[in-house]
Structure formats: C-alpha cells, structure tokens
Amino acid sequence: MRKFFQEIKADLKFKTAGPGQKLSEPSRYGLCRSLLPRVPKEKPKAEAAPKPRQGPTDEAQMAAAAALARMELKPKAKVASSQEAIKNQVRKELMAEAAASQKGLSVEEKDLASPDQEGAAAPSVSGVYFICPLTGAVVRKDQKEKHLREAIQAYFSVDPVAASIMEIHTFNKDREKVRVGLETMAKYLDNIYLHPEEEKYRKIKLQNKVFQERISCLEGIHRFFQAIGFETKTLPVPGQETLEDYYVLKEEMLTKLEDLKGYKEQLLSSEPVRAQLDRQLCVFKPSPQAARFELPNDFYNLTAEEIKREQRLRTEAVEKASMLRTRAMREKEEQREMRKYNYTLVRVRFPDGYILQGTFYARESVSALYSFVREALRDDWLPFELLGPGGVKLTDENLAFNECGLVPSALLTLAWDAGVMADIQAVGEEQPASPLKPELLSRVQTLA
To answer: Sheet harboring 384-387: ordered strands across?
Structure first.
C-alpha cells in the first residue's frame, strides 16, 4: 500500500510540478482524492413540501390580546392644641375600655395575616384605612363608624355638649333633615335667650308635631337637650286634664343665658366628624412588578349609602340627557358617570427606579397626587411632571382620578424639568442618590 502511494506521489510531481517546484499540501491531497475511486452518494428522498401556515383567526387574535392585557394588569402568583387635648382624652378613655375587654385579632384580621389560599398572590395593600380625627388611630374601612361612635361616646365625659353635637352632625346622613332640625332648634333657644321671663318658651312639648317631625328624629338630639340644661318632666296640658312629657329648662340655666347662646352657635356651625383617608405611603425598591396590582375588596365594594349615591347620580345624568349640551360636556359627564370605584391605588416610579405608593379617593383631584409626591421629596421645590400610560402628561390637576382613567390602580412615571436639571448639573453640585426623603428610604420595601 505504501509503495502504491509513493508511485502516485511521484507521478503527480512529474505531471503537475515544474522543475524545482513542489505541490502544496492541499493540492496534493485534492489530486490524491481525485484519483481514488468514487462511491456514488445515495440521493436523499424527496421530502414533502411543507404546507403553508394559516394566519391566526380574528377570534384568536382577540383572545391573545386579552390574555396579554390580563398579564400586564394582574400579578403572577399638624393639629390645633384643643384638638390635641381631645385626642389625648379620648385616647385615654378608649384605652381604659380596651384594657377591660378581651384582646386579640378579629377573624378578618387573622385572615389577612395568614391567608387561607396557599400560593395566592399577596395583595398590594391589605385594605382601605382611615385615621380617626379624635384619637389618631388608624382603622379599617369597615370599622370606621364603630370607632367614631366609641370615640365620641368616650368624649361625653370631657364635654357632653360638644360630644352630642358631634353625634348629631356625624350620624344623621340626611343633611337636609339636619339643616331643618337645627334651624328649628335654634328658634327654640333664641326664644329662651330673648324672652327669659316667658315660662312658655322654657318648655317644649315632646309630642308636638313640629318637634316630632323635625327634631326628635335626629340621632343625638336628646343628649344635646340634656347636656345644655333641659330635663324631662310630665306636666298637665293647659286647658286639658291630660298629662304630657316636656323638656323644661332648669332654673339655674337662666343665669347662664350667654352659655345657651354659645351652644346654639356651636350647634349651627359644627361639621360632621370625618375620618381622614390614610394614604398608606410605601416606598419600594426598583421592581419589574411595578405595573402589577392585586387589590382587596375594599376598593370595589359599595356600602348601602354609596349605592344610593350612585343611583342618585345616575338619575341626575338621565335628567341632564334631555338638555342641549356640547360634545365636550357630554364626554365629561360620561366620564363622571363611570363611578365604579371608590378608591384607587397609585404608584409613581422615579427616574432611579424607586416607587412611591399611596391610596386616594377615585373622585379626588390629581392635585392631591402632586402634593403627595412633593411632600415625599427631599427637595420639594424641584419641578416635575407626572406621566400616565403611554407617556400622556397629567397637566390638568383639577381632574379627578376616575376622569383620567386612573382607577382602580395606576402606575405613573415622574419626569424632572429638563431645564432645571441641566442648570443643577452645570453648577456641579453633588446630588443625593435618591430624591426621596431619608426617613422614607430607611423603610423601603421589596415589592412582592
């Protein structure tokens, strides 16, 4: 075999190389392969031509778009001193009652602390919370009215007149009834103040039709009578043999007529005690989950009072439909009719990726969001803009969240004023790592 290859090599040199020349290695091997017998290659079997792929149907495209949308939206798995005194006193009263009662979490709170559904996505917030103006306590939405009642009840030991006025204004929801009742009550007190010598003005017949229809129906009104110096007496009716119940002003109150006048003015000028919505401010680290929200039922459920309000608003909208309106007016009213949510959870993403989160009323104006963000900044003078979905600027701060489509949740982007930031960089002043206040960054959380 070796001799065979040597003969081929010599023959190749003789045929292709000139005098004093050698074939390169690739040339030799190529010629060598050309001299060897060739084995015919087996032709591959012809494959069937692939069928042309049909495009997705309209229904499939709509289903895919809806699925993508669901994937984007759903997650994967200071006070006045008088008010401060009220707070402290009421807080003491409530703490004393709490110490006497059994402590422990309610069933609902336990459910929130340890969810039953294993692997269920954690809510972005555990619920909607309010701050009691009397105690400063933070309570859940469904416990708000109960807590207010307890706080006002506790304040009776401090100032029974003020506490009864709080009851009247806070727990009587029909404001027109309250207005009519208080105006009638004011006339009774004016008559006593202006005519203290007239005994008939110091007596109020409880079965009087006007008293029954306008005053007696108000919650808290009887406590108010007792607090300002009236007492219940059964007296004979002039010209009749029957006895009736009366409210009669105590004799000692005739020397305190100025106090009586002050009580009347306080009654007319007071406002309902309203719990303030707790923003539940949170700061999160940069996260790709920023656009995913999991909201509790508090953001959707309507109370009986809220349902009545919705019905009233719809009735008003139907009545206005017959009026001649411009297209802009109709569009604005149509947006206002879309009142499906009471609250909204808003996140603002900063240029450094940090996320600021807060809870707002759905009908609250966007100006509240700008104030919320500004209060969280280390330098609150820095001008900024908030950009909604698609980079749309929220320029009209008077619009409500539901009018802007920012319900029941929204992710916004903060953008600094380019001119101001350029001036700051030109000065060369060293900027902090984050524009948020240090006390907020100290409790930064990881977005689940």
So the answer is: 282-284, 355-361, 343-349, 409-416, 384-387
Position 26 scores a pLDDT of 43
pLDDT reading at 66 higher than 90:
no
Phi/psi for 233 (5° steps) reads -135, 145
Residue that the structure tokens 């409500």 belong to = 400
Alpha-carbon gap, residue 15 to 27, rounded angstroms: 13
Sign of CA dihedral 63, 66, 71, 72: positive
What SS3 state is found at 412?
A: strand
CB 229 within 8 A of CB 255: no
In terms of DSSP bridges, do strands 384-387 and 343-349 run parallel, antiparallel, or are they unpaired? Answer: unpaired
Taking Cα atoms as reference points, which of 166, 184, 148, 146 lies closest to residue 223? 166
Q: Do residues 273 and 169 make contact, with C-beta atoms less than 8 angstroms apart?
A: yes
pLDDT at 15 over 50: no
Give me the residues paired with residue 140 across strands. Answer: 129
Q: What is the DSSP letter of 36?
A: S
Token readout for 333 is 């009213």
Cα 411 from Cα 347, distance rounded (Å): 5
Q: Cα(263)–Cα(279) distance, rounded to whole angstroms?
A: 35
How would DSSP label each residue in 294-340? ---GGGT---HHHHHHHHHHHHHHHHHHTS---HHHHHHHHHHH---
SS3 350: coil
User: E strands along 119-165, which residues?
Assistant: 129-131, 138-140
Distance, in Å, from the CA atom of 265 to the CA atom of 259, rounded to the nearest integer, reads: 10
* Alpha-carbon span 233 to 244, nearest angstrom: 8
Q: What is the pLDDT of residues 79-89, one digit of tens each?
A: 444 566 666 66
134 neighbors 155 (Cβ within 8 angstroms): yes
Whole-number Å distance between alpha carbons of 407 and 438: 30
Q: Which residues 6+ apart lie within 8 Å of 229 measured at CB? A: 249, 250, 252, 253, 256, 260
Q: How far apart are the first and last CA of the chain?
A: 76
φ, ψ at 272 (rounded to 5°): -60, 150
Beta bridge partners of 235: 244
Both tokens of residue 243?
A: 């006895």
User: Quick check: 293 and 222 in contact, CB under 8 A?
Assistant: no
For residues 274 and 170, what is the distance between their CA atoms, to the nearest angstrom? Answer: 8
Please give the average per-residue pLDDT across 375-390, as a whole number: 93
Within a 10 A sphere around the Cβ of 1, how many other Cβ atoms?
5
**All residues at 6 or more sequence positions from 162 whose CB lies less than 8 Å from its CB, including other chains:** 155, 266
pTM for this model (two decimals): 0.66
Given its phi and psi angles, is residue 104 left (phi above 0), alpha (psi -120 to 50 degrees) or beta? left
Pull the structure tokens for residue 210.
Answer: 């006007």
